[in-house]
TrEMBL record:
PANTHER family to which the protein is assigned, alphabetical: PENTATRICOPEPTIDE REPEAT-CONTAINING PROTEIN (PTHR47926:SF357)
UniProt cross-references to Pfam families, sorted A to Z: E_motif, PPR, PPR_1, PPR_2
Domain of life: Eukaryota
UniProt keywords, alphabetically: Repeat
Protein name as annotated: Pentatricopeptide repeat-containing protein
Native species: Abeliophyllum distichum
Length: 524
């Protein structure tokens, strides 16, 4: 790669800066020169620091790296890179800290090409394998390029440290390669709280909530002190699998470590308890908040809505308005959900239209889809169809699924099949649509249609996503799917199931039991 760092960024930039250098004379003679640069830049006099550098009797890598670092800390990243150009103009050889800083500026400027130029220059002077330079390049490739380039940067780094490993883990998680992220994590010579946080949040974001919870428990067992970012990630994962007991122990741990709860963690706890169906605890946390933001209000409103307490959700919305906190798009979504749960169709439609007139920026595609769901679930199909026809954009899958869901509730097979065809035209591999319309035919006793749909699914190679469940035993979450053969204690589990089967053989469910999964031989 051709080295062009000297010529990068406004070829005349150094000339313009040099003109500034002559404006003022030497000042602050009592302070050491690198410290002087730091104090000047941190007092928002960055250009004065550049002028002062021209008058310094000792202009070296320490002084200029300090200046570049201060520019970067104040988000003056173009100025930091321009200062690097000045450094080369003065024939001062940059060190690993200089490169680490300017490469980080390239990340924040989203300039991959410039970052690669710095990497090539570092390689020319023998610094590319340095851990500070290598970690910075890892971060650049993870955020702006691809995991293969990140892997090469990691391989080129001599003695990678915890930052290097953690950055590579983040890259694998970003690519959805959780298995490789775990492999790197467990191979790390040392781990810090950031490494653990990456695994907990990564597992949670990818839907592996039980692994996220287990990572958090293992982190505590290893004696790693959580940060303020750890608990919200763990609480979200616990909420997603309904692990109320475990989440309550996380809550207690947070109080133990921090002595209290900040707003960020409190909001996570409000959502956690609501998702686990414990609105009493959710309201208790909410009421204890000395200061509430829009996220706090949204958490309690959506919590009530999700738990079927629509009237309480609407009451909370009124209190939110009185408190002076402005609602956002999430608030509107919570209101529509609340109205849906208690059958307040006209009320929900009123909130939607009010938002559309008063603040159109609040209304997103998901709000339109919620109105379709609201109308469909109440059986008002003509209004739902007209609403879809009048949309200011083309309806996506979510709209037709909302309509199909309502058709399934009210056994409207004709409209349901129309909605299903729309969904399959947009996504031929959508299994849930086949299942929903098959269930509707099954409920109506149209077995030929059911067989036809199942045959079409087989021909397309589509399979139902198996149902899953989980239990919490001794602070460990165990997940099971239909016909599971992967659990480490599967033999003991099936022995217990057979034992229960033997005791209900005379019941009316015998035919069901004989055809069930656990009546089959266990796979070894």
């Amino acid at each position: 790669m051709k080295i062009t760092c000297r010529h990068y960024l406004l070829r005349n930039s150094y000339t313009r800066l040099h003109n500034h250098f002559n404006v003022i004379r030497r000042i602050y003679t009592q302070a050491p020169e690198p410290e002087l640069c730091k104090s000047v830049t941190e007092s928002n006099a960055i250009l004065k620091a550049l002028r002062l550098l021209d008058e310094m009797s000792r202009r070296d890598v320490v002084s200029l790296t300090a200046l570049i670092g201060n520019f970067a800390r104040q988000n003056q990243h173009k100025e930091a890179i321009t200062s690097f150009s000045a450094m080369l103009h003065l024939n001062i050889r940059p060190n690993e800290y200089t490169f680490g800083t300017v490469i980080r500026s390239c990340v924040l400027l989203k300039d991959l090409h410039l970052g690669q130029q710095f990497q090539a220059f570092a390689k020319k002077i023998g610094l590319n394998s340095n851990v500070f330079v290598g970690s910075a390049m890892l971060d650049l490739y993870v955020k702006l390029s691809n995991i293969r380039n990140a892997e090469r940067a990691f391989e080129d780094t001599y003695n990678p440290n915890v930052v290097s490993y953690t950055t590579l883990i983040r890259g694998y998680i970003k690519e959805g390669r959780l298995g490789e992220a775990m492999r790197i994590f467990w191979s790390m010579p040392e781990r810090n709280v950031v490494s653990w946080n990456n695994m907990i949040s990564g597992c949670s974001q990818m839907g592996h909530n039980e692994e996220a919870v287990n990572f958090f428990v293992e982190m505590l067992r290893k004696g790693v002190v959580p940060s303020d970012c750890t608990f919200p990630c763990a609480m979200i994962a616990a909420a997603n699998i309904g692990a109320l007991g475990m989440g309550m122990s996380f809550h207690a741990s947070a109080v133990k470590f921090f002595g209290g709860l900040d707003l960020f963690l409190s909001n996570s706890l409000i959502s956690f308890y609501a998702k686990c169906g414990s609105m009493e605890n959710s309201l208790l946390i909410f009421n204890k908040l000395q200061k509430r933001n829009v996220i706090s209000w949204n958490a309690i409103i959506c919590g009530y809505a999700q738990n079927g307490k629509g009237k309480e959700a609407l009451e909370m919305y009124k209190k939110m308005k009185l408190s002076g906190v402005q609602p956002n798009s999430v608030t509107l979504l919570g209101l529509l959900l609340a109205c849906n749960h208690v059958g307040l169709i006209d009320e929900g439609y009123k909130y939607f239209n009010q938002a559309r007139l008063e603040d159109p920026s609040l209304v997103k595609a998901e709000h339109y889809a919620s109105v379709v769901d609201l109308l469909s679930r109440s059986g008002r199909f003509q209004e739902a169809e007209k609403f879809i026809d009048d949309l200011p954009f083309e309806p996506g899958i979510g709209f037709w699924k909302a309509l199909l869901g309502g058709c399934q509730i009210h056994s409207n097979l004709e409209l349901g099949e129309f909605a299903a065809r729309k969904i399959l035209a947009l996504d031929p591999g959508d299994v849930s649509s086949y299942v929903m319309i098959s269930n509707a035919h099954s409920a109506a006793g149209r077995w030929k249609n059911v067989l036809k749909i199942r045959q079409e699914m087989r021909e397309r190679g589509l399979k139902r996503i198996p149902g899953s469940s989980w239990i919490e035993i001794k602070s460990k979450v165990h997940v099971f799917v239909t016909g599971d053969r992967r659990h480490g204690e599967r033999n003991e589990i099936y022995i217990v199931l057979r034992f229960h089967r033997e005791h209900v053989m005379d019941s009316q469910d015998i035919s069901t039991l004989q055809n069930s999964e656990f009546s089959h031989p266990i796979a070894h």
